[in-house]
Amino acid sequence: MKIFIVGLGIIGASYAEGLHRNGHKIYAYNRSERPIIEGIKLGFIESDNSIEQLSSTDLVILALYPKYNIEFVKKHLELFKPGQIVTDVSGTKVWMMNELEKILPQGISYTSHHPMAGKETSGFDSRDEKMFRNANFIIVTGKRSLKRDQDALRLIANNLKFGKITVVQAKIHDELIAFTSQLTHVIAVALMQSDQLKETKEATGDSFRDLTRIAKINEVMWSELFLENKDELVHKINDFTHELQHVKELILLEDKESLMKYLKEAKEKRKDFDIH
Predict the structure, then answer these.
(1) Which residues of 127-155 are buried (b: 16+ CB within 10 A; e: fewer)?
(2) Residue 218: its pLDDT value, please?
(3) Please, which pLDDT band fits residue 276 given cuts at 50, 70 and 90?
(4) Domain boundary among 144, 169, 194
């Protein structure tokens, strides 16, 4: 396929390099020129790259933050042509998909997706197609989705060696992400911010390091994602707060039997993740 990638941050650049390696012709846009120049020099972006090439491609992958994806499409509407497939890699879907479905020209199909992979670092120089191996890949359908979109996205997922592919609608996606991704980042950040002891750094073990690894956060991106998915995220924070309060009460009451039962239930739930 001829693919146009909008945004060469860590995900966009990793897609570009990995998909080129699988035989696709890659064109790209980035707000700063250096990633484009480097990508051409390294050979994974075509040498005749330009914004006008968007019109000749089969698949357009929007890899900017949600509001910038919308701004890009609005600014370059005349470059989108009937028959193209549009997708994006954004971390929240409902608001952005609604906006894009309104403005994309007729004859263009649009199905979103979410590669469940990343690193603590960001930007073009952090690109690494290996991070996609065996990661979950979520296809998010909407009002402008066609069957051919899923075929194209499954090809992308297979080319980049993703693992399980799941298909959901936008609201379900945002509920899932609020719990499995955004809440976990909130917890990691709050845990770091709750530290009151100067000796903590010298007293940590694997459990603390594992729990707080994702607190090394891209504050610009994650602030935007938290706010765009505010309703779902606050609901999940409330659920988690309720569970924390329950554990606190069991400890205060010294109710060992109930505490053991609660811990065992959590352990069995987690074991079930490993089976499936």
Answers:
(1) bebebbeebebbbbbbebbeeebbebbbe
(2) 87
(3) low
(4) 169
CATH code (residue 267):
1.10.3660.10
Tally of structural domains, the chain: 2
- For residue 250, the enclosing domain spans 174-275
Could you tell me if 106 and 71 lie in one domain? yes
pLDDT digits (tens, 9 = 90+) for 171-222: 999 999 999 999 999 999 999 999 999 999 998 999 999 999 999 988 988 9
Which candidate, 192, 195, 172, 189, places its Cα nearest to that of 226? Answer: 189
Instruction: Write a three-state SS string for 169-228.
Output: EHHHHHHHHHHHHHHHHHHHHHHHHCCCCCCHHHHCCHHHHHHHHHHCCCHHHHHHHHHH
- For residues 152 and 84, give the distance between their C-alpha atoms in angstroms, rounded to a whole number: 11
pLDDT tens digits, residue range 123-173? 999 999 999 999 999 999 999 999 999 999 999 999 999 999 999 999 999
What is the spatial distance between Cα 141 and Cα 103, in angstroms, rounded to a whole number? 17
* pTM tops 0.85: yes
Whose structure tokens read 């979410």?
A: 114
Rg of the chain (C-alpha set): 21
Q: What is the DSSP letter of 7?
A: -
What tokens does 230 get? 């505010």
Question: In the structure encoding, which two tokens stand for residue 58, read together?
Answer: 């089969």
List the CATH number of the domain containing 97: 3.40.50.720
Strand order of the β-sheet with 2-6 is: 25-29, 2-6, 59-62, 85-88, 109-110
